[in-house]
Write a structure and sequence with these properties.
The chain is an all-alpha fold and 537 residues long.
Length: 537
């Protein structure tokens, strides 16, 4: 049991003053932008089986999501630093424009290569959307009061996480999967207009735009090579092949060079000093695990729902509702609890337990698992995600100085997205390999398109095409999908269990207000004494 609370991180400069009315007006723009970012993956997920079947390439399934997340991950710290240097308003608006251009090009894709490339462009913009929302919130609302305002942002989640899959499924079933991308345009234009006016009061940055492009290039290099290793290893190349070994060497060299550069440059793209704080590093590690589990669940669960449980794309989106609602309710309740009591340490501990339990339950699914059962599993997983999503970011921001808030928020968001990148690519490789191995073991090499003799092309299988095959062949493929999804969630549960070991080492640091920064002569230590009763074991 800790008897005293750790002191808050010192704050050197006072933030801009925002009244409650101004905060709510500013948040109206943030809500639309967050909805834009959240809707995209939610809309695309139910369409993935049809997209892959239309354009071909099961082995590239994960890259439709990974390309987006990878680009978003690499761009996140760059957008965060640009916001610190040039001001958040123009960088935020620029990210929206790039996101919309990428959306249009995705809808025009003619093959998987084009789609993955344009998804990467879309991800570049998305990186600025998410870090921009969080950095603006950190700039205008102190951590001690942030929970109640973040509750407003969390109200976006049911619209995105329930409406998104429903819209994506409806578009796939009744229009064409291309409209899953075009639908971003009207919402994006609305976000541009609202944010242009509501973000006008934000500071314009330091004005010293010295961007660490060398660090950004090295960051992008080692992220890309790492994701290629997890995606290709054991699938397209043997783990001991020259290609994988070469990528591993490139990853290590680029990472070491990145650390050296970031320690020496004046304005690092990712200030390594923030990682010297114990709580920041631990919350960042948990953010990585949240990304790993969250994107894995959303990406691969519709495969089981559509191929095995026979759901349409629309219904598979609707069937994700228990997970999304559970995540939303728990997240909002947690935010309210934090604002009222100042206590937060129990949330990441409970969250990792629930997340590990939910993923482990999914790993037990078989071909006869009912929709009711999977819905109950989703409630457990969603509750864990709800405990972690808000608390990990809050802990990270509470331990970062305001002058580097954009870069620190970018680093925390980067780790969450990095978890998603590695998770989806690694789990995608596991899924594709397991599925193919199961089919091959039961039927031999599965090639061709003839349904009459039971032969088919695994990489181009769609839920609709599966129904035209003989019943025995359908059963084999459904068992293969079940085996693949089971392996995905088993690995996810193991990673989430590691998160519990990380969460127990987080110390309670009293949530600071802006008073100590805004009032001359008030030391951060005073704030720590006022809130020391909030310390928990």
């Amino acid at each position: 049991m800790e008897s005293t609370a750790a002191k808050p991180a010192p704050e050197a400069e006072a933030p801009p003053g925002f009244t409650h009315r101004e905060i709510m007006m500013t948040m109206s723009g943030l809500v639309i932008a967050m909805l834009l970012a959240m809707l995209d993956n939610m809309i695309v997920a139910p369409a993935l089986p049809t997209i892959v079947g239309d354009l071909g390439g099961l082995n590239h399934l994960a890259w439709v999501t990974t390309g987006y997340i990878l680009a978003s991950t690499a761009a996140t710290p760059i957008w965060g630093k640009l916001g610190d240097l040039l001001g958040r308003r123009m960088t935020f608006l620029s990210s929206i424009v790039i996101f919309l251009i990428g959306s249009v090009l995705c809808g025009m894709s003619q093959n998987m290569g084009e789609l993955i490339g344009f998804r990467a462009l879309q991800g570049l913009g998305a990186g600025g959307l998410m870090v921009g929302v969080m950095a603006v919130m950190a700039e205008i609302v102190p951590p001690r009061e942030r929970g109640k305002y973040q509750g407003v942002l969390m109200a976006v989640m049911p619209v995105a996480m329930i409406g998104g899959p429903l819209a994506g499924g409806f578009i796939t079933d009744h229009l064409t999967w291309r409209w899953a991308f075009y639908v971003n345009l009207p919402l994006g234009v609305a976000a541009l207009l609202v944010c242009w006016f509501t973000l006008a009061k934000l500071s314009r940055g330091t004005g010293k735009a010295r961007i660490d492009w060398t660090g950004a290039a090295l960051l992008t290099t080692w992220i890309t090579t790492l994701v290629l290793i997890t995606s290709w290893g054991g699938n397209e190349y043997d783990w001991d092949s020259a290609t994988i070994i070469g990528l591993a060497v490139a990853t290590v060299l680029a990472f070491v060079a990145f650390v050296i550069v970031e320690r020496r440059v004046t304005e690092p793209i990712m200030p390594l000093s923030v990682f010297a704080n114990r709580n920041f590093s631990l919350s960042g590690a948990l953010s990585f695990i949240v990304g790993f589990a969250m994107f894995g669940g959303v990406t691969f669960l519709p495969q089981f729902q559509q191929f095995v449980q026979g759901s349409s794309a629309t219904n598979s989106g609707l069937l994700l509702m228990p997970m999304m609602l559970s995540s939303m309710v728990v997240s909002m309740a947690g935010g309210a609890l934090i604002s009222r009591t100042g206590r937060y340490r129990a949330l990441p501990i409970a969250g990792t337990i629930l997340m590990a339990a939910g993923l482990a339950l999914f790993a037990t699914m078989d071909i006869d698992t009912t929709r009711t059962t999977t819905s109950l599993y989703m409630v457990v997983l969603g509750a864990g995600m709800g405990c972690l999503m808000q608390s990990t970011m809050l802990i990270a921001q509470n331990n970062a100085p305001l002058r580097n808030m954009g870069a620190a928020t970018g680093a925390a968001t980067f780790l969450r997205n990095m978890g998603g990148s590695v998770g989806v690519s690694l789990l995608g490789s596991v899924y594709a390999t397991t599925l193919t191995d199961t089919v091959t073991s039961h039927m031999g090499t599965a090639t061709g398109a003839g349904a009459g003799d039971g032969r088919f092309e695994v990489a181009q299988m769609t839920p609709q095409a599966l129904k035209s095959l003989p019943e025995k062949v359908q059963h084999v493929f459904q068992q293969a999908v079940t085996d693949g999804v089971g392996q995905v969630f088993a690995w996810g549960a193991a990673v989430a269990a590691v998160g519990l070991l990380i969460a127990v080492f987080i110390r309670h640091v009293p949530l600071r207000g802006f008073d100590s920064a805004a009032k001359p002569g008030t030391a951060p230590e005073d704030t720590a004494q006022d809130t020391s009763t909030a310390a928990v074991a």
